[in-house]
Amino acid sequence: MDTGASISVISPDLANRLGIEADPGVAPVTLHTIAGRVVAPIVTISSVKMGDVEASNVKAVIHDVGLGLDGILGNTFLDRYRITVDAARAALILRPR
Question: What is the model's pTM?
Answer without folding.
Answer: 0.89
